[in-house]
Specification:
The chain is mainly α. It folds into two domains: 341 residues, no CATH class; 126 residues, no CATH class. Helix content is 65%, strand content 4%. The protein has a four-stranded mixed β-sheet with strand order 1-2-4-3. Helix 5 packs across helix 16, helix 13 packs across helix 16 and helix 21 packs across helix 22. The relative contact order is 0.12.
Length: 482
């Protein structure tokens, strides 16, 4: 059912900037260059490594690498639906609760649309989160720790989940405690040790440390914290992409919150209740976009599934059979899919009505106009690099959120030295803007923006080619005119 519903969205959705960062990282991983060394990003390294697996598969079978990577992430989304079914069934000891949880999960448009049009890094993260909770509920400590660790390697916030697994293990009765803690620690350690070995082999341990920890604790810029606007922004980023499922989400989360008052306490609820506060506290401080709500979707789905199953159980002679309710939830999920075909609905989540074929045509136009040997670099829009399989002259595909500050402090010669190196690579075309993007984030300092624009305006001019805004070297157009 998940394959059917998610497959209806198609695989030709727009390649957003963030998605292209992971695709580019995957292409570099397939070439033997690990994340952070090949492309700098402040999230965990596992998402581009999963994308790299997709690229390797595409090379083996001669498939298109973008569609293959999207197929890999699509598979994780479908497996997440299966995981939600099992989680709801195990937590609430009801197969019906699990079924309704899975059907509810299918209706989350904000998760479903990128399932086949990513790679959205938090799609596999949700699968790992669900499996971490499921195995913790079953007291299978090794696998709970293992999948919690994988979730952490996609998004650092998720480190709370393997930590809870270990905490629950050490709180077991004395006769179970040592074995449970040992298995949990082993499960958590395996992905981390494998990652360290991988980076050690490539001589890139410093890159791993900088990208995953140092940058996030020292350089990452999110702006000043103001509770009112932060909550308003979070609400808008939940309401817009999840509008048709707001009622199930609210009811489902309310059901989970009520479990805190349930007596007598039952262990099967512990993994759910102990993990939930972490994402809530983090979201109050740093909720950015719709995908930041992904972490809450399994809780909402199993909560609403339990609510529906309980209402049916309590009814002495239910007028609405379970099969009809299931059909209604499935109809909502399919209805969201057909709504997504409309331009307005697609733009609601992605900010654009441009599709992947449009982007391919625009990238090809750049190559057709300036030749197959045209040198391309990204300062904010890596999609063209991905589509044309080009390598950026440096790992910095975008400069906002504090990356310019990191370059200033970690690059010889500072930001000015980095600009010198960019000039020395002599790119013919610099991609900086695509549909639905903002040219330069407010988090790029005024001084660095002034330096960058001064260099660009001296040698380049802006043009729109297909859906792309690019800077083209003045001498290229002068040569065309001659």
């Amino acid at each position: 059912m998940a394959v059917f519903v998610y497959g209806l969205y198609g695989f030709d959705g727009v390649l957003l900037r963030d998605y292209s960062i992971y695709l580019y990282g995957g292409q570099r991983v397939a070439d033997g260059v690990p994340p952070y060394a090949g492309v700098f990003d402040h999230k965990g390294p596992l998402a581009p490594m999963i994308a790299g697996l997709g690229v390797v598969i595409s090379h083996v079978f001669g498939w298109d690498d973008i569609y293959t990577v999207r197929g890999v992430f699509f598979t994780t989304a479908c497996l997440a639906v299966v995981g939600v079914y099992l989680l709801g069934k195990n937590v609430f000891r009801s197969e019906r609760a699990g079924l309704f949880a899975a059907l509810t999960f299918l209706g989350f448009y904000g998760f479903a649309q990128p399932a086949s049009s990513g790679p959205e890094p938090k799609t596999p993260m949700v699968l790992f989160e669900i499996l971490c909770l499921l195995f913790a509920t079953q007291k299978r400590w090794f696998w709970s720790g293992f999948f919690g660790s994988l979730a952490f390697l996609i998004w650092q916030l998720m480190g709370f989940f393997p930590l809870v697994t270990f905490l629950l293990a050490v709180l077991r009765p004395r006769e179970e405690r040592f074995g449970a803690a040992l298995r949990a620690a082993a499960g958590i350690s395996v992905p981390l040790l494998a990652l360290l070995a991988y980076y050690y082999y490539h001589g890139a341990l410093r890159d791993l440390l900088d990208g995953m920890i140092v940058f996030n604790t020292t350089y990452l810029v999110r702006g000043s914290f103001n509770l009112g606007p932060q909550l308003a922004s979070a609400a808008s980023n939940i309401i817009l992409p999840y509008a048709t499922m707001l009622a199930p989400i609210l009811i489902g989360l309310f059901v989970i919150l009520r479990l805190y008052t349930k007596r007598p306490f039952e262990y099967r609820f512990a993994p759910i209740l102990v993990t939930l506060p972490g994402p809530i506290l983090w979201s109050i401080r740093d909720f950015q976009l719709a995908d930041d709500f992904y972490v809450f979707l399994p809780y909402a789905a199993i909560g609403f599934g339990a609510f529906v199953a309980d209402r049916l159980r309590q009814a002495e002679s239910p007028r609405v059979p379970a099969a009809l309710l299931a059909a209604i939830l499935l109809a909502v999920a399919v209805g969201n899919t057909f709504e997504a075909i409309n331009a307005s609905a697609a733009q609601r989540l992605t900010g654009t009505t441009v599709t992947l074929p449009d982007q391919r045509a625009g990238a090809q136009e750049i190559e057709d106009r300036y030749g197959e040997d045209v040198k391309i670099a990204s300062i904010g829009s890596p999609q063209v690099l991905v589509l044309l399989h080009r390598e950026n002259p440096n790992p910095y595909l975008w400069l906002s959120a504090g990356i310019d500050g990191y370059i200033e402090n970690e690059t010889p010669g500072g930001f000015d030295g980095w600009l010198d190196d960019l000039e020395a690579s002599n790119p013919d075309v610099l991609t900086f803007l695509a549909e639905g993007q903002i040219l330069f984030s407010q988090h790029l300092t005024y001084e660095h923006k002034r330096e960058l624009m001064g260099r660009l305006n001296a040698r380049y001019h802006a043009e729109k080619i297909g859906p792309w805004w690019v800077y083209v070297k003045n001498s290229l157009d002068e040569g065309d005119k001659a």
